[in-house]
Every structure is written in structure tokens, then in C-alpha cells.
Specification:
By secondary structure, this protein is α/β, with parallel strands linked by helices. Helices cover 40% and strands 22% of the residues. Helix 4 crosses helix 5 (90-110). The protein is globular, with a radius of gyration of 23 Å. Bound molecules: NADP nicotinamide-adenine-dinucleotide phosphate (NAP).
């Protein structure tokens, strides 16, 4: 598949194979762009700015709805490609498609709601006799740099609000899974003027870095790891930056919790997309009194998961993005076992597959839970009290989302108030998001919020216009 720049398909001498992590088959190849091509994308995106600024919000909204309609018509085909390049079960890919369609609809609606406000200058000293109002204006060019795990929906979370508020976009998809996004951008390009959306493939450390450093880009909207996010924040200069980074989300299960519900929460939260979810359940903090019962029930449910060909509708656990990624998970779990943790089920790797693994007696200082383990692992940390549960939950550099299971409202409210995370769910695992909610973490999990309305706020600038009526 080729890059899309200024409405034209562009290739490069060097290419990279995109492989299916399930069977190693090459699905397609993509160009590895040179920096000159990145500059071309920047030029085209800048040239196209006026075409969007001149377009009415009504028209932009309708065009986004047309793209939405086309994506809906091609839902199955897109889902299949997504499964081929990421290795996630086809049913999960279909859910990602449904969410992508929803995200686009939300952006089409939001395009019609980009309001300023009147400002009472007479509330300030010497402000009597003025009338003032604000406008929300596009920033210009937004660069969207995105990760492999939910490549389509997470990219739409950037492109759709950017266009809704009249920014042009350059997308740098992940090298391991760029195809679904590239195909989606073709749909956008059929609707919008050339250069409104541009896609450039190549290595993040070169092409991504070039976009981040360019003074001709107005905003970097990045989703990915903390390491890359930190680098971007140091290099972006004066441009606006949104960073949606990694998570190490706790799931606190207190002694009065509905254990079945909490177990279900872990099955979804720790094993969805083979555990490669930023808001995945990565630390299960359980009160000692119920830990044995909880662990037993969790093992029972975990062993019902079906590992297999991700295209098969009965598969509930697919591969990781690559064999290398699965090996990293294997090493981290093995190290925890050496340090005293105990595998209750799972713990084996085959190629890019890693079994759904429940591991008990995990201590808060083990690598497995200090860093973000991006795989299907459910580590149980036993604690003696609510105080200790909150302390362990906060003992991390991350703060994306959190979940608490309890039937005690005062304990729930303490967790909600004291756990340092962008979202705390009561009686729901952290692995839950609707595409309109403000989403974004505290601490090293990021800067800024997504969720269409909130992304639009971060992709516009406010101008005040004041009239002297004295
Ligand atoms: P990553 O390695 O940071 O890569 C993300 C994107 O950044 C890719 O497109 C990558 O390109 C590019 N990139 C790499 N180095 C760069 C640089 N120096 N400058 C600019 N761009 C650069 O992350 P990942 O492994 O794909 O994704 C997994 C991580 O994302 C996890 O930590 C996960 O928790 C996090 N995540 C967060 C959210 C959220 O909303 N908070 C959602 C999903 C995932 P290449 O592919 O070419 O290297």
C-alpha cells in the first residue's frame, strides 16, 4: 500500500513488510519514507489549510457522516485486515470497527458545536462599555502519531476531531500495523480536498521525530509509550502536544466485593487484545480475606479462554503483535517467578502467542507490576486493608484509569478520591471507555484529554474580539 500525500499516492525505494503475527505471512508492504517525503506531507497539509477553513461546518459534518457510511459498508473487510495485521480476534476487531464508526459520528456532531462565548469585560476594571466574544479557531496542521494496539479507532480519535475543527492532518501510523489506517485515509480523501489528510509511513524515530521537530506543524497528537512520549515532549518546542501514554491500571477488589463481577472484570480487563491495552487491568490488588476464593474463580474463568486463529469467530485470545513482544512478556513473568511469584495458570509462550496467565503472590516492587507489562497477564497482589490497597494502587509512575470492586460506598468514595488516575470506575474495571468521555491519564500516563469534544478543545485556539462601544 502506498502513502497518501496531497491527494496522490506516493511510494519510496525502501519498503517494510507488514506481517500477520499469527502465521508470519506477509500481508502487504509499505514505503519507508525519507525526510524529503515528510517535508512534502508538511507542505501539502499547509497548502490545504484554506480549503477546510473556507468549508462550512455543515459541509464538514456531512462529509464526516459520508465517511462514516462508507466505513459502515466496509466494516467486515476492515475488521479482517485489522485482525490480519494485529492478531486480535475477529470479534474484537468488529468491536473496534463499531467504535470507530461511533467516533466518526461523534466528530460529525461536534463539527456543528464549535462555539465561542461572550465575555463580560465590564466585570473587569475599566471594562465598561466594551462588548467582547471569543472564537475557537483551528490550529493549522495536526500530526497524529499512533500505536499498534487499536490502530484504527485511536487514529480516528485524532483525525476526526482535527478535521471537525478545520485542521489538516498528517498521520504517521505504527510500522507494525499501518494498513487499516492507510485504507481508512483513502475513504477520507475521497470526501475531502487533497492534502486535508496525508499519511506517511516510515520509522517513528526518523519520520515521527521529523514531524515532532517541524516548526510548520502546529500540534502533535501522540498515543504510545511513555518513553516515546517523553522524547516528544522534550522536542516539540512551542507547539501544542497531547500525549496519551501507557498505563499500569489497578483493579482493587475489597473484601465485600461481588467476586464474580470482579473476576469478569479481570477477564475482560487483563486479556482483551491479549493484554495489549493501555487501560488494561495490569495489577489486581485483592484484600487477603477473599484472595484465595477470588484467585480460584479467576483461574476457572481464565481457563475457558480459547487461543487460536484470530480469524476464527470462536477464538477469544489472539496473538501479541509479534513474537518479540511475546518473548518480552515471557521474560518478565519468568523473572517474577524467580522472585517468588506463583503461576496459577498459563505462563507458556508459543510463537507470538502467550497464554492467559494468572500469577499470585506478586509483590509491588516486582518488574512485572512496576513497569507496564503489555501482555495477557493477571498479577495478584494481596493486601491487608483498604489503606494498603490505595497505597499500592498509587505506588506507580502511571495514572491512566482504575477500577474498584466493593459494596461499601464509603470505601468506594475513598478510592475514587484518593487513587491518582484520570478515571476511577466503581464496580467496573479500568478497561472501559465510551468514545465521548474525557479520556487521558495523570502522572506519566499523559498530558491532555481525548474524547471528541475534549480533543476539539485541544485542537483549537481561542481568539478574543473586543468592540469599544464607548
Ligand atoms: P510506541 O513504540 O511509543 O509507538 C507509537 C508511535 O510512535 C508509532 O507510530 C511509532 O512509530 C512512533 N514513534 C516511535 N519513536 C518515535 C519518535 N522518536 N518520535 C516520534 N514518533 C515515534 O508505542 P507502541 O508500542 O506502538 O504502543 C504501545 C504503548 O502505547 C503502550 O505503552 C500503551 O499503553 C500505549 N497506549 C496508550 C493509549 C492511551 O490512550 N493512553 C492507547 C493505546 C496505547 P514506529 O511504529 O515506526 O516505531
Amino acid at each position: 500500500m502506498d502513502m497518501l500525500i496531497g491527494g496522490k499516492y506516493v511510494t519510496a525505494e525502501d519498503t517494510e513488510e507488514v506481517k500477520n503475527p499469527y502465521d508470519g505471512q506477509v500481508i502487504d508492504t509499505v514505503p519507508i519514507a525519507h525526510l524529503q517525503t515528510a517535508q512534502l506531507a508538511i507542505d501539502e497539509a499547509n497548502k490545504a489549510k484554506s480549503s477546510l477553513v473556507e468549508m462550512s461546518a455543515f459541509k464538514i459534518s456531512n462529509k464526516l457522516l459520508n465517511v462514516c457510511e462508507k466505513l459502515t459498508q466496509n466494516r467486515e473487510e476492515f475488521a479482517k485486515l485489522l485482525t490480519l495485521e494485529v492478531g486480535k480476534p475477529i470479534n474484537e476487531s468488529l468491536v473496534e470497527l463499531d467504535r470507530s464508526i461511533e467516533t466518526l459520528k461523534l466528530a460529525a456532531e461536534e463539527a456543528k458545536r464549535i462555539y465561542g462565548e461572550s465575555v463580560p469585560l465590564d466585570a473587569g476594571l475599566n471594562g465598561k462599555g466594551f462588548f467582547a466574544f471569543t472564537q475557537r479557531l483551528p490550529l493549522g496542521v495536526v500530526a497524529a502519531i499512533t500505536p499498534f494496539n487499536y490502530p484504527l479507532n485511536l487514529t480516528i480519535h485524532k483525525i476526526a476531531p482535527a478535521i471537525a475543527c478545520k485542521n489538516t492532518v498528517i498521520v504517521k501510523p505504527p510500522t507494525e500495523a499501518p494498513l487499516t489506517v492507510m485504507k481508512f485515509c483513502e475513504l477520507l480523501n475521497e470526501e475531502f480536498p487533497d492534502g486535508v489528510v496525508n499519511v506517511i509511513t516510515g520509522y517513528g524515530s526518523e519520520i515521527g521525530d521529523y514531524l515532532v521537530c517541524s516548526p510548520e506543524i502546529d500540534k502533535i497528537s501522540f498515543t504510545g509509550s511513555v518513553t516515546t512520549g517523553l522524547m516528544i515532549s522534550q522536542k516539540a518546542g512551542m507547539k501544542k502536544v497531547t500525549l496519551e501514554l501507557g498505563g499500569n491500571d489497578p483493579l482493587v477488589v475489597l473484601k465485600d466485593a461481588d467476586i464474580e463481577k470482579a473476576v469478569k472484570g479481570v477477564i475482560n480487563g487483563a486479556f482483551l487484545n491479549a493484554g495489549q491495552v493501555c487501560m488494561g487491568v495490569k495489577r489486581i490488588i485483592v484484600e487477603e480475606e477473599i484472595a484465595d476464593e477470588f484467585a480460584k474463580k479467576l483461574v476457572g474463568e481464565t481457563e475457558k479462554l480459547v487461543m487460536g486463529n484470530p480469524l476464527d469467530k470462536t477464538t477469544t485470545l489472539g496473538t501479541l503483535i509479534s513474537e518479540k513482544a511475546a518473548m518480552q512478556v515471557e521474560q518478565t513473568v519468568d523473572m517474577a517467578v524467580k522472585e517468588g511469584a506463583k503461576i496459577l495458570t498459563g505462563g507458556k509462550r508459543e510463537g507470538a502467542f502467550y497464554e492467559a496467565t494468572v500469577i499470585d503472590n506478586v509483590k509491588p516492587d516486582m518488574d512485572l507490576v512496576v513497569n507496564e507489562t503489555f501482555g495477557p497477564v493477571a498479577p495478584i497482589i494481596r493486601v491487608k486493608s483498604l489503606d494498603e490497597a490505595i497505597e499500592v494502587a498509587n505506588d506507580t509512575e502511571y495514572g491512566l484509569q482504575a477500577g474498584v470492586f466493593t459494596s461499601d460506598y464509603s470505601a468506594a468514595m475513598r478510592c475514587a478520591n484518593e487513587i491518582e488516575a484520570g478515571t476511577v470506575f466503581i464496580n467496573k474495571q479500568s478497561t472501559f471507555r465510551t468514545d465521548n468521555m474525557p479520556f487521558g491519564g495523570f502522572k506519566n500516563s499523559g498530558v491532555g484529554k481525548e474524547g471528541i469534544k475534549y480533543a476539539v478543545e485541544e485542537m483549537t485556539k481561542t481568539k478574543l474580539i473586543g468592540l469599544n462601544l464607548r
